[in-house]
Amino acid sequence: MSDLKTIETGPKSADVADGTMKNIDISEHDLELELALANYVPGSDAEKRLVRKMDLIMMPALWFMYILAYIDRQNIGNAKVAGMDEDLNLSDDQYAMLLSIFFIGYLICEVPSNMILTRSRPSFYLPGIMIIWGALCAVMSVVHNYQGMLALRFFLGAIEAGFFPGVLYLMTCWYKKAEIGKRFSIFFTASVCSGAMSGLLAGAITGNMEGVRGMRGWRWLYLIEGCCTIAMAICLKFILLDFPESSKRLSMEERQFAVIRMIHDRNTSVARQAIRLTHWQSFKAAVADPRTYLFIILFVMDLGSCTISYFIPTIVKSMGYTSVHAQYMTIPIWMVGAVFLVVLSYTADRTGDRRWHITGCLCLSFVCTLVCITVNNPKVLYAMLCFYIAGLYTALPLILNWTSEVISLPAEKRAVVVALVNSIGTLILE
């Protein structure tokens, strides 16, 4: 196979289309890719080896990154149960504002961040923003007033905004339509498992570190979890893959194979795959596509109910548990959701269906809501809470996966659409 050092995803906007040597090189390379595409055989042993390698390198790294991202976002609920609201003299309205301000920062920065990612190296960009949000989380341990916590929550949202849509875009650059569903759902189990892990860590930290060196347990919670995030980000810088045409962790042959199989999967040509849009062009293409707004509506229907995750420790505590026991009792709720997510994402990929899987999940959550407003038995309420979370959190990745499948090219447009669906959904929610 040819030397992939000359591979480009397409002519840059500054290229001169008048027959220069640079354009001749790109044209010759396109002909070579077309020949390789004609000889491509899906499901070969070589392709299976490549996919296994991609899985082993990328999936565990992204999964642990999302675990920490979600823990650092959600630990405010655990901190509240551990006494943060009393120490900072927070009213109910102020606590609600601390939750909302995160999403305001998230909204502002989500689309620009995904635009930057398309022109940068994921192995630098994603760990870089992870180090910053980990530092912000750690600094929350020394905050002594509402205003300071409000500012940190805003910047935490602004920095974390680049992670989730960035990962979805990165995965759609590497995996075929028949591969992406279960892998993205496995990645998304991190958000569900993080709820269980957050409760486990919060119970251990706030229960054992209360008063150590004169610090409250909730302050240790922020400090320890923030430092863990920074340490993990430094390690992942040396693990993550970049884009298929430029990732240095693969051989030249593997990079070319990765490019060819994605061109074949999208049933397109090398020339169309090579189209590159500027930031403004990709934004205009995304907002002009009516399908974007249909996916926004669907996403809002699901996302609107997911903020309950911030109140789960408080809800469980209201069932009669102590503060520490309530932290641990959140674990089964998230584990049920994780099982649902893995099983239904597998069946969605096997059947090629997204629509009815999403419909079923949202209907399940709706039924659980009806039961909760008519029953007062704590055991029944706890069980319904488990299935309510399972339905909501299983539908979310299926919706975003469906979005990336329907609007797949150009790649820059896909990146903006995914970010818009996520960010505008958050705006309407707030």
TrEMBL record:
Domain annotation Major facilitator superfamily (MFS) profile: ranges: 58-430
Keywords from the named record: Glycoprotein, Membrane, Transmembrane, Transmembrane helix, Transport
GO MF term set: transmembrane transporter activity
Cell compartments where the protein resides: Membrane
Domain of life, source organism: Eukaryota
Transmembrane segments: 54-71, 95-117, 124-144, 150-172, 184-205, 220-240, 293-312, 324-344, 356-376, 382-403
GO CC, one annotated term: membrane
The protein's name: Major facilitator superfamily (MFS) profile domain-containing protein
Protein source organism: Cylindrodendrum hubeiense
